[in-house]
Amino acid sequence: MRAWPPKVAKGPPVPTAYLDRDGTINRDKAGSYILKLSQFRLYAAAPAAVKLLNAKGYRVVVLTNQSAVGRGYMTMAVSRAINLKMVRELRRAGASVDAVYFCPHAPEAACACRKPRPGLINEAAKDRPADQALSFMAGDKKCDLDLARNAGIKGRLVLTGQWRHSLGAAAAKKGFKDLLTLARALPDVSGGKKRKPR
Ligand SMILES: [Mg+2]
Ligand SMILES: [Zn+2]
């Protein structure tokens, strides 16, 4: 389900940075959910990371499982508001998120969009296709990497969130310290084109 923006402009396939939210862009704790606006805290390096992704020519799309909605811990409206808060806080720091999609379903719902199922990526790609070869999915959990595999794009692990609980210590060798470290390691795909201000 798209949380933001209300409409997506059509266009040719673009290199896309698909980013997980909790544990990748903002602080996350194992076994708890972000249920209130006040619990949402960007990682200090997140604005610089997204800014760098913008500068390097990536469309930035956030994909997040928010099963707390389906479990009845939070309303859809609050979940949307938290996603908008993320977009706004990043924008205030000069970083642009192009779109946010979330899965509000509980695991038992067996929906098509709960990561690692590819529903959210399919929905995003329907709005604006991704250049498969230059796109990637970055996240802090096994389900993010599995989603990348299911969608046929590269997966990138960040070591800021919950990887320890789903992937174990061996995964650390393949991971990036944080989203900014990953953004620095990525190629510039802008082709010298300046990003259009939205
Ligand atoms: Mg996460
Ligand atoms: Zn879903």
Helix and strand pattern:
EEHEHHEHEHEHH
Major sheet size, sense and barrel closure = 6 strands, mixed
Overall CATH class: Alpha Beta
Tell me the Rg in angstroms.
15 Å
Measured as a percent range, the helix fraction is 25-40%
Distance between the termini: 22 Å
**What small molecules does the structure contain?**
magnesium ion, zinc ion
Number of domains: 1
Q: Tell me the fraction of residues in β-strands, as a range.
A: 5-15%
Mean pLDDT: 95
The CATH architecture classification is: 3-Layer(aba) Sandwich
CATH superfamily: HAD superfamily/HAD-like
Number of helices, where a helix is a run of at least 4 consecutive DSSP H or I residues: 7
Q: Give the CA-based shape.
A: globular
Strand pairing plus helix content: what structural class?
A: alpha/beta
By CATH, the topology is: Rossmann fold
Number of beta strands = 6
Strand order of the largest sheet: 1-4-3-2-5-6
Low-confidence stretches: none
Give the tags.
198 residues, alpha/beta, Rossmann fold, 7 helices, 31% helix, globular
Describe this structure in words.
The chain is of the alpha/beta class. It has a 6-stranded mixed β-sheet with strand order 1-4-3-2-5-6. The mean pLDDT is 95. The protein has a single domain, classed as Rossmann fold. Strand 5, helix 5 and strand 6 form a beta-alpha-beta unit. 31% of the residues lie in helices and 14% in strands. Helix 1 runs parallel beside helix 7.
